[in-house]
Amino acid sequence: MMHRLLKTRPTILLTDPIHADARARLATEANILVLPDGLSCEESDEALRTLLTDADGLIVRRQLPENLFDARSLLCGVVMHGVGLDFIPVKHASALQIPVANCPAANANAVAEYAFAAMFAMSRQLAQFDHEVRQGNWQSRQAAAAKTFDLRGRTLGVIGYGAIGRRIGEIATRGFSMNMVAYTATPSRLPPHVGAHSLEELFATSDFLVVACPLTPQTRGMVDKHIIAHAKRDAVLINVGRGPVICEDDLASALTAGTISGAVLDVFELEPLPVDSRLRNHPRVLLTPHLAGITQDSERAIGIFAVDTMLALIRGERPDNIVNKEIFLAARSNLVEMEPLGSASFHIEE
């Protein structure tokens, strides 16, 4: 991998602010640039391209332009401040032999706890009863028994069983004695107490369904009207993964028809959620602005993880959380091909 000679202090560009402790840690070894606030999408992309010319590394917290790296091959690394890699054009970075890393599992507990907050909000109808009390309808409590239920003994289906799915499974079985089933590409890795189901079986048997998988070509639009049609009528769908996994228009139609009871959505096909979205004012939906993984604790953990990873990349190291390790094999292959020419005038990072 070809790199320029680094300055005494490297410069790291942040697309967005990071936790104060993480920033202080980064500042001890690097100069810091931050993308300005208040820019339009187009202005933000242009500012990103401009600032990137002086950067040795990039820490990402927002969607990057697909062609951002086309004229930029000297970055020492790109680090996702989180898990999902759909914000980063990884293929383009790999073609230019730029290492890309993420921060797996750092916010898994925060996301899992959000999923249970969502289950409680729906199983106990908190938003509805809050509204009733504010309207002076104290007698609404008489309907509580008919409208609410315990988590204990219910079946929880998880789509994707990575770090977040595993943590959800631990809380569900150890804390609430729930039955756990999962849909995953690697069912052989499921623990003995978690049943492996097809997606159709998962919807047909689960009281709660949690989308916790990454966005890939295989998962995009995976939860559509054909899958939702298998759901129990009193089931609740929770999305803490990526918005485009669910076909939102199909979900809105199913909610209106009563095919499925409710939904709690933290992520959406388009973000921010468009004003004309059918989900915005739907009475059976709770909405939050992509914050399931954001708590004081998780922000600090992810920020420090991202900073430590970036500093390791700047030093020429290969941390385990690099997601495109194949670039190092390509670099070695290129070196072998060039060595007989006797013209190796650059350094290959090992």
Task: Give a short overview.
By secondary structure, this protein is α/β, with parallel strands linked by helices. The protein has helices at residues 20-27, 41-52, 90-95, 108-123, 126-134, 144-147, 163-176, 199-205, 225-228, 248-257, 296-314, 326-338; strands spanning 11-14, 31-34, 57-60, 77-80, 100-101, 155-159, 179-183, 194-196, 208-211, 236-239, 262-265, 285-287.
Q: What is the name of the CATH superfamily of the largest domain?
A: NAD(P)-binding Rossmann-like Domain
Radius of gyration: 23 Å
Class of the largest domain, according to the CATH hierarchy? Alpha Beta
Task: List low-confidence stretches.
Answer: 335-350
The proportion of strand residues reads 5-15%
